[in-house]
Prior knowledge:
alpha/beta, five-stranded mixed sheet, about 45% helix, binds S-adenosylmethionine
Amino acid sequence: MNIIMETKKGVLYLVATPIGNLSDISKRALDTLARVDFIAAEDTRVTRKLLSHYEIKKKIVSYYEHSRTESGSKIIESIISGESCALVSDAGTPGISDPGEDLVKLCVAHSIEVLVIPGPCAAVAALTLSGLGATRFTFESFLPAQKKKRLSRLDTLKSENRTMVFYEAPHRLMATLADMLKAFGDRSISISRELTKIYDETLRFTLSEAIAHFAQTTPRGEFVLVVEGYTNAPQCDEELTQNAIKMAIEFKNSGATLKDAIKRAADETGYSKNELYKVMIKKYG
Ligand code: SAM
């Protein structure tokens, strides 16, 4: 069925664009870009490249992080005067970790109609590839660049039992993985890099394996990290049992009472306190 839809006037269209492969754009997205009065783009050079690939000629205005207050008001004025605008980001879905969110808020505040032309989004693409639970997930975008703030954000996610999706820059990848290991323990992680591009790859590891891998291979390109949520750890997992016992012994040796050592090790590892108690009581009587 071929549904032809008119491009409306006085509307903001959120148009998703490719995250790498220029073919990943819908027919409706291309029709909308060709028919609106103007396009608001995060990076006009990136958008010109896309438009010229599809032989679309259109007026482009700039709408990016540092111009959003000033150019946001101008865009709103043009829409109110009856023009239609398509908002595009550098890649993917406008509004997901880019300033598009603010333009939508402005439109809502001015009772301007907003319509979406859905399409690629790096977070969703990586989640579906991860092999981890994709029914319930939380999108965490970029973690703070500053170590203390990053650790404190990760700390708030320790007991999050949904799968967690993060964006990360290559030069911060190692520090982030190390902080995740510290905060979460050795959980499963799926790392997607350069999705839909030449060096597209998805690696599935534990956090410690990921650290070992990127200690050997310099991280390059764009990354999405998909981390397993907190689970009440499986009681029969031998490795987990050994880790919990080792940790409890360390706590005990460093002066904690047997009860406190068991509680702390059970809390840290997610291992059953009762099971740990049975093992430790045999050892310490
Ligand atoms: N709006 C975009 C979306 O819908 O995915 C995200 C914009 S955010 C500013 C850019 C981040 O998305 C990158 O730093 C990277 O973490 C992730 N990303 C974008 N394209 C990607 C790709 N092809 N492969 C892996 N990650 C990508």
